[in-house]
Design brief:
Layout lengths: L7 H12 L12 E6 L6 H17 L4 E6 L4 H13 L4 E4 L4 H13 L4 E4 L9 E7 L1 H15 L6 E6 L5 H14 L4 E7 L5 H14 L6 E4 L2 H13 L15 H9 L5 E3 L2 H16 L6 H4 L3 E3 L4 E7 L2 E3 L5 H5 L6 H4 L5 H7 L3
Parallel strand pairs: 1-2, 1-3, 3-4, 4-5, 5-11, 6-7, 6-8
Antiparallel strand pairs: 9-12, 10-11
Length: 355
């Protein structure tokens, strides 16, 4: 979706006030924005989210400093990182939480210091201190996955295996509901699993169980994310099926893109991280300098986090298949041809027009 922007005159006024161009008496030096990300397992965080967020904030104000931390999947570590950046004077906290319990504690700590919280990429649940949410439209992601799977299958009433994400995860639940809305009545769900931690290993075991129960007869596989898709593909290959069924995914991980090039995975979901990171940086900047962030930015959208309806910027995802890789992932520089087309995938890349 097209993110709303503030007017040019307002941008100029803010730049003068924040960065001292001709108005040094109004400068508030050393404004600090905390940017806390959850892990380094997903390569996008270090390669995309962090540099894009920092570059956008720097373009708005050279005096603004980003206090960046990555929790490496440790909720307790993220709480400690939050305590540090708040103690170091962060005036806005942009938070992608590791888990629900640590996130609520972090939001409460920020609230006590009167520091607004912007939930980033994943909602901070049950926390009234969250002022804004910037993320992707999860329901749209599920709809894309379901529609893509339907388009890839040839049978009139295809049989599918569904590998949903962690049932305790809000995003996984939204995806599951959206995919069912797209598939129900059009397919036979032969086997369905809710996968704890949305892990590749568990997905592989589930896929193997389904293949045994179904004697290898199925038309498609819904996997909620690329990590689970990798487990499903591994099980399918071990079963040595004559024809690989289409497998969905999400997150546009490099290994998933390579599986798509090779024909092992049918699709993934591209989340334009630049739009997300830059929207979060803009909102953080506005909050730092007291600029009202209204419906012109969020489009009037909200996401309920269990405590309040949070004003939200929801970026629209894009389905990616072998035919659309060049126009999406490669064109945006999310992954380069060189990164995708390693020696193992050289022949597949030539066949796909990537090299």
């Amino acid at each position: 979706m097209k993110l709303a922007r503030i007017t040019a005159s307002l941008v100029l006024a803010l730049a003068l006030a924040a960065c001292g161009a001709g108005a040094t008496s109004q400068v508030v030096p050393g404004k600090k924005v905390a940017f806390l990300l959850p892990d380094s397992t997903a390569s996008r965080y270090e390669n995309q989210d962090r540099p894009l967020f920092e570059a956008k904030l720097q373009s708005l104000c050279s005096d603004c400093t980003v206090l960046y931390r990555n929790a490496n999947g440790d909720g307790a570590a993220q709480r400690q990182q939050a305590d540090y950046v708040l103690g170091a004077g962060a005036t806005v906290l942009v938070l992608d939480p590791v888990d629900a319990s640590s996130a609520v504690a972090i939001a409460a700590s920020a609230s006590r210091r009167h520091v607004p919280v912007v939930a980033y990429d994943s909602m901070v649940m049950d926390a009234a201190a969250v002022k804004f949410y910037v993320g992707f439209d999860d329901a749209a992601i599920g709809a894309l996955q379901g529609a893509s799977l339907l388009a890839a299958m040839k049978a009139s009433k295809p049989s599918v295996v569904m590998l949903n994400g962690d049932p305790s995860d809000r995003e996984a639940s939204v995806l599951k509901n959206a995919v069912h809305k797209a598939l129900d009545g059009k397919v036979t769900v032969a086997k369905e699993f809710d996968t704890p931690a949305s892990s590749s290993n568990d997905a592989q075991l589930e896929m193997a169980q389904a293949l045994t129960a179904l004697s290898g007869k199925l038309d498609g596989v819904y996997a909620a994310n690329d990590d689970m898709a990798s487990g499903a593909v591994a099980a399918l290959k071990l079963a040595k099926l004559k024809t690989m069924p289409p497998v969905t995914g999400g997150d546009t991980e490099l290994t998933a893109v390579q599986r798509i090039v090779a024909g092992d995975q049918y699709m993934t979901v591209y989340r334009p991280v630049r739009q997300e990171a830059e929207a979060a940086a803009q909102i953080a900047y506005d909050l730092v300098f007291g600029v009202p962030v209204g419906a012109s930015v969020t489009g009037g959208q909200t996401v309920n986090n269990g405590a309040v309806d949070v004003p939200a910027v929801l970026v629209q995802p894009v389905a990616v298949t072998r035919r659309t890789l060049l126009a999406t992932v490669v064109a945006d520089g999310f992954w380069t041809r060189q990164e995708i087309c390693t020696a193992d995938y050289a022949a597949a890349c030539r066949a796909a027009g990537l090299s």
